[in-house]
From TrEMBL:
NCBIfam families: P_ylase. GO terms for biological process: glycogen catabolic process. The keyword Secreted does not apply. The modification N6-(pyridoxal phosphate)lysine is found at K699. GO terms for cellular component: cytoplasm. The lineage of its organism: Bacteria, Bacillati, Actinomycetota, Actinomycetes, Micrococcales. Phosphorylase is an important allosteric enzyme in carbohydrate metabolism. Enzymes from different sources differ in their regulatory mechanisms and in their natural substrates. However, all known phosphorylases share catalytic and structural properties. It is an enzyme of class 2 (transferase). This is Alpha-1,4 glucan phosphorylase. Residues 1-22 are annotated as: Disordered.
Amino acid sequence: MSDDASNGFTTDELQTTDVHRVGPTLPVSSELAAGPVEPPASTVEGFIEAFLRELNYGQGVLLSRSTINDQYLALARTVREYLMAGWLETGALRREGDRKIVGYLSAEYLLGRQLGNALLATNLQDIAEEAMRRCGIDIAALRAQEIEPGLGNGGLGRLAACFVDSLATMDVPCIGYGIRYEYGIFRQTFENGRQVEVPDSWLALGSPWEFPHPERQVRVDFGGHTEKWTDDQGRERTRWVPGWNVLGIPYHHMVPGFRNGTVNTLRLWSAKATQAFDLQIFNSGDYATAVRAQTFAENISKVLYPEDSTPQGKELRLQQQYFFVACSLHDFIANTLPKDFDLRQLPERIIFQLNDTHPVIAIPELMRILVDIKGFDWDEAWDITRRCFAYTCHTLLPEALEVWSVELLGRLLPRHLEIIYQINELFLEEVRQAFPGDEMRARRMSIIAEHPERSVRMAYLATIGSAKVNGVAELQSQLLRDKVLPDFSEYEPAKFTNVTNGVTPRRFIYLANRRLSNLITDTIGSEWVTDLDRLRELEPYADDAGFRAEFAAVKQANKERLFRLLSVRDGLELPQHAMLDVLVKRLHEYKRQTLKLLHIVSLYEDVISGTVAIDQVVPRTFIFGAKAAPGYHLAKEIIFLINSVAATINADERVKGVLSVAFPANYNVTLAEKIIPAADLSEQISLAGKEASGTGNMKFALNGALTIGTDDGANVEIRQLVGDDNFFLFGMTEPEVEALHARGYNPAEYYESNDKLQRTINLIASGHFTDGDRALSAQVVDNLVTQDPFMVLADFQSYLDAQARVDAAYRDPERWTRSAILNVARSGFFSSDRSMRDYLDRIWLSSPVE
C-alpha cells in the first residue's frame, strides 16, 4: 500500500452544504423559513427559524405535513448547527497547534442518544423546548424517536464514550477512532422467555449526527504475500503484495464539551469494496456475482462482534480490528499531520490509547508504515512506535485476552506476522540478557504461544509495544501485575500503573436524573457538573431532615417514571413503593446473575412453604437487564431461567405486591438512564478477582443507590469512599477465592450442608418455574451443583446474610436515605474527568489546552 492512499483534505477544511428539516400547526405562510442565517440566534425565535429551515429545505416538507421522524431529524440538525462553528474552530486549532493529541482506538463507543446530550452541551434545552411548544410539538416525543447508535455492547463502549466526553469538556485534543457498525451487536427480544437476536437497524431512519467524507477514503489491504527487494541505497527491504483490499470511508461525529465551545471528533470507519460492481457480469445475468465484492467488503463493518465460534467468524473479527486501526493510522499520518511533519517527532504529537486488545494490531501496522513505507531503520522505528502507544487492560479473565492463530494471522496479514516475529525475537534477546539462564521465563514471555496451537498473544504484544500499561481499578491493576502479566511487571515495573475508571456526570446525573441534579444545584450550586468532587458539600445535608425528604421524593418520582415507561414499553405493571433491587450488566457467569436468582427464589420459597409470613418480607421489585453473546449457550439458558422465575412469581397471588421480577428486553444506555436513577439497591456481586472495574457500580452510587457487593473491581474503592456503614459487603476476598481453588472447590458440599440453599435449588430443579419440565432448568442447575466455576454456592450464605442487613436498613427510611445521600456526596472520585486527569498525568504526559 502506498502512503498516499487518501487525499489531503482534513475535516476542518471541508465546508458542509447539507440542508435539513422539521415541524404541526402554523399557517403555511408562517411555516416557511426566511432563508439561511449565520449561526442561529440563541433565542426561541431564532431557533424556530432555524428549525423550520431544516424542515422545509432539508426534509422538504411543511410543518403541517411532517412526520415525527421529519421533526426529529430537523430538530437534531438544528441543534447540530449550533455546534458546527465550535467543531470547525476546534479542528483548525488542533491542526495548527503542536499539542499532543490523544488518538483513542476503541472497537466500541456506546454513545447513547445524542439529542439530549447536544442540547445539554449547548445549553439549549429550555429554548428548544419552548420553540417546539410554539410549533405544537412535544419535544419528549422527538427525543423518544431517536435510536441510539449501535456502536457498542457494554462497559467497554460506555467507558470510551465517557472518556471522549470528558476530554472535550476538559479541552484535551482527542480523536476517537472506531468502526461505524451498520447493525450494532443485536437488538434483544424474548420469545417464550428465550433471548432472540434481531438486527439492530439503528441507521434505518437516518442518522443526523454523522458527516460522511468519502473523499478521505483509505485503502486497506489483506492477504497475499511478502517479497524482498533492494532499495537505491543497497538496503534489503520487504514489501507486502496484498491479495485483496477494501476501502475505509470515514464518518465524523461531533463530541461536544460541556458548554465550553470545544467540539472534538469521533471518526468511525465504514468498509466499502474497491470495485463494488462488475457491469459485464451483471449484464450476463449473474446479478449475485456482480455485487459479491461489495457484499464481502461491507461485511467488515456490518455487525459489532460477529459470532466467532466458527473459523469464518474469527477471521471476520480480525479483519474488523485491522481495518479500523489501519484506516486510523494512515488517516492521521496523511491527513491530520502537516505535510512536512518529521515522523521522528510522532510521539510528541500523538499517543494512541489501545482500549483493550482489539486495536493491538496497530503496533505492527505502525512499524510497517515506518519501516516498509517511510524507510526508517528498525531500531528507530521501534523506538518511535513504543512511545506512540499505551495499553489499557480491561480484564482478568484469561479467555478475554485475545489470541490469534499464526495460521490465520499469517494468511490475512502476512507482513504483520513477520513484524511480530521480529519484535518477539529482539524482545526475547533482551529478556535473556536480563535473566541469563532462565529459558522458561523467556518462553512464558514470548508473544508466540506454542500450545495448544501456535498463536499470537495480543496482550503480550500490547505490553511490549506500549510505553505504559494500566489497569482500571486499584485491585485489578494489582492483580494485572501479580497474576496476569507478572513476568512483564517484574521486567519493567515502571511501565505499569493504574487509572480507575469513571463516568461522565453530564449524562449519568445531569441528563439522566434531572430531578436529582436540580436538587444538588439548588443546594450547592452548579459547579459540580465539571468538578464532581464538589459533591462533598452535600455531606452535611445528610443530617438535614428536610433535605432527606426532598431526596427521597426525587427517588420515588424516578421510580414512578421508570414504572410508567416499563408499563408502556414492556407491559409490566410493578408495585410503586417496593425496594427497587437492580442487577443490570452483560450476562456472564462471573457477574453471577445466578446468585441473584437464587436469592429471589429463596425468598419466594420461604413464603410459599410457610417458613416466613408474607408480612415479614420487605417488598422488593427485582430488575434484570442483560444481553448474552449469541454463541454463549449457558448465558442464554440463564436468561431463560430468570424469565421463567419472573413469570411464575409475578403470577402467584401469594406474593403479589411483595415480590416482583422484571427483565425488560434490550438493555441499553437509553433504558439505563431510566433504571439507574430509580434504583434503591445496586447489585455488584461478581466473584472477587474477576471484575476489572465496573462502571455501573459508579453510576448507581452517584445516583443514590446503595451497593451490595463483593470486594471486587472498583467496588473496593466505592466501599472505602462511601464507608462500610453505607455499603453491604459480602463474600470471599480474592485471596480466599484463590485459597479455595487451591484446596479444591466442591460446590456439592455447599449444596448438601446448607438447608436453605438445598431447598432453593431443589425448587428450581423440580420444574416449578418451567411448567414441570425439569429438563428446561437442568443445565443451569447441573452447572451450579457440579462445576460452579465462579463459586456462587460458596458465597450464597454470605450473600443472604448481607441481604438481611439490607432489609433491616430499608425498614428505617431515614437511615436508608441518609446512606443514599452519603453515597452521592462521596462518589465524586468516580468522574471520568478525574480518570482523564490521571491518564494525562500518568500515561499521556500531556495537559488540557489553555
